[in-house]
C-alpha cells in the first residue's frame, strides 16, 4: 500500500505492485527515479536497479513466501519450482545466490524453515509430527536433526524455553545473523 501511494504521488501508473517488485507503465527520468528512491527510503524500502541484486531479492522473496506465507510447502523439487518461477536456470540462480549472499539457496531455505518451525512451536497448535509434515520433512527425526544442527537445541527443548528468541525475517539466512537462544 505504501509503495502504491508513493507511485501515485509521483504520477506513476503501475501494472503490478508485488512483494519486492513493481512494474510501471511509463519510462521515468533520472529526476523522478531519485524522487521515487527517496520516497521509498522514507517508507523503509530500497529501490534496486542492479539486475543481479533484483534477482537475489526475487529468490529470497519466493523462499520467504513459500516458507512463511503459504499454507502448503512445495511438494515438488524446489530447484525446478524456483527455475520456473523466475525463468532462469537453477544452476545460474544457485551460483549467483551463493556468490552474492555467501550462503547457498539450500542453507537459506533451511534457515527460514527453522525460523518457521520456531513460530509453529510457539503457537502450540500443532505437534512436532504435524509440523514435520507441514514443513515437508520426510520424518520427525529429520526435522529434529536439522533443528538441532541449526539452533543447538531439540524442538522439545526449544518448546520448554521461557524466552524463545526469534530472528526478524530479513535477518534469517544472512551470514552475519547469529542465532541466539537463552533459557
Give a verbal description of the structure.
The protein is mainly α. The protein folds into 2 domains: 2-47, no CATH class; 52-171, Arc Repressor Mutant, subunit A (Orthogonal Bundle). Helix content is 57%, strand content 5%. Helix 3 packs across helix 5 (90-101), helix 3 packs parallel to helix 6 and helix 6 packs across helix 8. The radius of gyration is 19 Å and the shape is elongated.
Could you write a compact summary of the structure shown?
With 183 residues, the protein is mainly alpha-helical. The protein has nine helices and two strands, in the order αββαααααααα. A hairpin with a 2-residue loop joins strand 1 and strand 2.
Attribute tags:
two-stranded antiparallel sheet; disordered C terminus; 183 residues; mainly alpha; 2 domains; Arc Repressor Mutant, subunit A; 57% helix
Give a topology summary.
Blueprint: H1 2-9, E1 14-18, E2 21-24, H2 30-42, H3 51-68, H4 78-86, H5 90-101, H6 105-123, H7 128-134, H8 140-151, H9 155-160
Antiparallel strand pairs: 1-2
Helix pairs in contact: 3-5, 3-6, 6-8
